[in-house]
Design a protein that fits this description.
Helix content is about 45%, strand content about 15%. The protein contains 5 helices and 4 strands; from the N terminus they run ααββααββα. The strands form 2 sheets. A two-stranded antiparallel sheet has the order 1-2. Strands 3-4 form a two-stranded antiparallel sheet.
Length: about 130
């Protein structure tokens, strides 16, 4: 006959401290991955050819939209998207659709699909990161 006896002490403070230590790294990695996927989804267009509605926008001379996508991450979260100082409202107009400078643009999301692609990877990054 074989028997075993053990006791476990749950210390939520230790788990919480470990999670707080890993938060900045996890947010930074997730934000970087989302930024990279958003950038790679924007393809170079033939002259004057727009992306079909529902597909990520094409980039044109200078690739300003692709180059404007940046990220910032800290222990509290992350910001990822095109810099307004580089492309103005163009990023938001492509992402959500709308009117800009008298022209109507259909939705051509690039940030939303990048987030969706990485959401499960972000959740998996938390798994196994809390160590003693």
């Amino acid at each position: 006959m074989f028997g075993a006896k053990f006791t476990a002490k749950v210390t939520p403070q230790v788990v919480e401290q470990a999670a707080k230590r890993r938060q900045p790294q996890t947010f930074k990695q997730a934000a970087f991955d989302i930024m990279q996927d958003a950038k790679t989804s924007i393809e170079k267009a033939s002259k004057g050819v727009a992306a079909p509605p529902g597909e990520p926008p094409h980039t044109h001379r200078g690739a300003w939209l692709r180059r404007s996508i940046r990220y910032f991450a800290d222990a509290f979260g992350a910001f990822i998207g095109p810099m307004h100082s580089m492309v103005g409202k163009a990023g938001a107009i492509h992402e959500h659709g709308g009117t800009w400078k008298g022209a109507v643009y259909p939705q051509r999301s690039f940030m939303g699909p990048a987030l969706e692609k990485n959401i499960s990877a972000f959740a998996n990054q938390w798994r196994g990161t809390i160590r003693k």
